[in-house]
Specification:
This protein has about 350 residues and is mainly alpha-helical. It is built from 17 helices and two strands. β1 and β2 form a beta hairpin. Belongs to the FPP/GGPP synthase family.
């Protein structure tokens, strides 16, 4: 049996920032071309959201995101099929990025997040209706890109991406439903399921689509999907930790915003279900609305109840599962090193 080591990506000289930069450079023209086909008002919102222009329509160089999902598409295609497969998958990678940004536009509206990527969210600038409609349009553009792709993998990729969107919506629905329930009525299993649907599903889909464009077997494509899902869960666990204890100068969001909103994130639910006095204190805090000045006390209660330690340990376990699936899909560590580098990048970050 082939075994993998977490250091494989570094040993092979495949560093995530370079992979992401290359993916962004390859995919950006497809994204801009697709967005430019939108009606003027939706195009304006979408271009603002992507960081290509400001609220007045002037060109800007605001941060457009890390391009993790398109990078996974292209890197998976390269791992299984080489450079030709990677080139063929650029349009599909752009479609995945469009779907991701559709979810961001909608999530920001539903969560009432005022900032993303260090500036005001689209709904805060243009209003809810325009942000929602722009998100809808990005989803339609994603499907149109794949529908117009003549590559044999485009049809199965389109079906897989459509199924993923349904799962993404399910995850968001579960998330909003959980927020309406009392703190101790929520269990870890259902929150993990929500996180897999909201985050893991699209990362898995991205890897699987790359495998499809490389002509991978059904087993290889499924293993890539599972790799992405497990890495996605590890990503969400770390993201939830950062959402509580991260530096807003790096995250672009206010410190402790999830706690103030009484979000039942993974560290919080782990803490609430741990038992003990710290869990009781946290449950009491979460049972009422946020009171100014309670963030530090709430974060400390989560930490004392074991939420932070559990989330970090669980992220490591999920990453281990991801590596096992990657070894099944791509037995040669040298070929799969780029995928491992990306997974390490999103799960080892500190902000």
């Amino acid at each position: 049996m082939t075994t993998w080591a977490w250091g494989a990506a570094i040993d092979n000289g495949q560093e995530a920032p370079a992979i992401l930069e290359r993916a962004r450079a390859d995919v950006d023209p497809e994204l801009r071309s697709a967005v430019d086909t939108l009606p003027p008002e939706m195009r304006r919102v979408a271009r603002y959201h992507f960081g290509w222009q400001d609220a007045d329509g002037l060109a800007t160089t605001a941060h457009a995101g890390k391009a993790i999902r398109p990078a996974l598409v292209l890197t998976a295609a390269d791992a299984l099929g080489g450079a030709r497969a990677r080139t063929a998958a650029v349009r599909a990678a752009a479609a995945v990025e469009l779907v991701h940004n559709f979810t961001l536009l909608h999530d920001d509206v539903m969560d009432r997040d005022p900032t993303r990527r260090h500036r005001a969210t689209a709904w805060a600038v243009f209003g809810d209706p325009d942000a929602i409609l722009a998100g809808d349009a990005l989803q339609a553009l994603a499907f149109r890109l794949l529908a117009g792709d003549s590559h044999p993998a485009a049809v199965p990729a389109l079906g897989r991406l459509a199924s993923c969107v349904v799962e993404l919506c399910e995850g968001q629905q579960i998330d909003t439903a959980l927020e309406r329930r009392e703190p101790r009525e929520v269990g870890l299993a259902e929150v993990l399921r929500m996180a897999e649907a909201k985050t893991g599903a699209l990362l898995g889909c991205a890897c699987a689509i790359g495998g499809l464009y490389a002509g991978g077997s059904a087993d290889e494509v499924d293993a890539l999907d599972l790799f992405g899902r497990q890495a996605g869960l590890a990503f969400q666990l770390i993201d939830d930790v950062i959402g509580i204890w991260g530096d807003p100068l790096h995250t672009g969001k206010p410190a402790g915003a999830d706690l103030a909103a009484r979000k039942k994130s993974l560290p919080v639910v782990a803490a609430l279900t741990s038992g003990g006095s710290a869990a009781d204190e946290l449950a009491a805090l979460y049972s009422g609305p946020y009171v100014e000045g309670e963030l530090e006390r709430t974060a400390l209660a989560v930490e004392r109840a074991g939420g932070r330690d559990w989330a970090q340990a669980e992220a490591a376990d999920r990453m281990g599962d991801a590596v096992a699936e990657l070894a099944r899909a791509v037995p040669d560590p040298e070929r799969g090193g780029g995928l491992l580098a990306l997974a390490e990048f999103v799960t080892r970050r500190s902000n």
